[in-house]
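Practice record 12: protein with zinc ion.
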Amino acid sequence: MNNIRKIINLGLFILLVSAFVNFGFKSIAYGATCSHTPTIETKAATCTSGGYTKVYCSKCGFVISYSKTSALGHLPATVDSKEATCTSGGYTKAYCSRCGFAYSYTTTSALGHLLVTDTKAASCTEGGYSKIYCPRCGYVSSYNTTSALDHNLVNEVTNDYTRTYCTRCSYESITPIIKTFSNKQTPSHV
Ligand SMILES: [Zn+2]
Ligand SMILES: [Zn+2]
Ligand SMILES: [Zn+2]
Ligand SMILES: [Zn+2]
């Protein structure tokens, strides 16, 4: 009986050992038979964070190589500015042109219009105007016109002509008086 039990135990032991060895060989064989399919995964470095390049097997996940790159840091400041105008504000901005990080940003307020009055008096023949405008941007705040005044005519009558003139400007019109000679005044031949 004892011998039989020993033989059975030995048999079980051999079975367990062979099962373990078998399993071990199988797992080793599995690792050795994956013909890796390399896949590259990259993340580019940015101004503030590092990147990496990883080559791994897409079938078993084995990492073939892995290398890191450090953060790039911001680029030297790029300065962009806009002058303020009469109606809109301006700014001065210093920033990283790669990621937009702002080193500084200052604004200036709108200047407001420069209001200047320009007038032209009406004359006898031309109308006048009164204009309030901004010489910086051309904005016209108000524009009023006045019509031509027309001549202020006065007649001056002499024996020889009638002179009609304007008291305000240099306009004048002379109309000769045509004399009809009487018989007495007719020149006679000597
Ligand atoms: Zn693999
Ligand atoms: Zn940046
Ligand atoms: Zn203006
Ligand atoms: Zn006149």
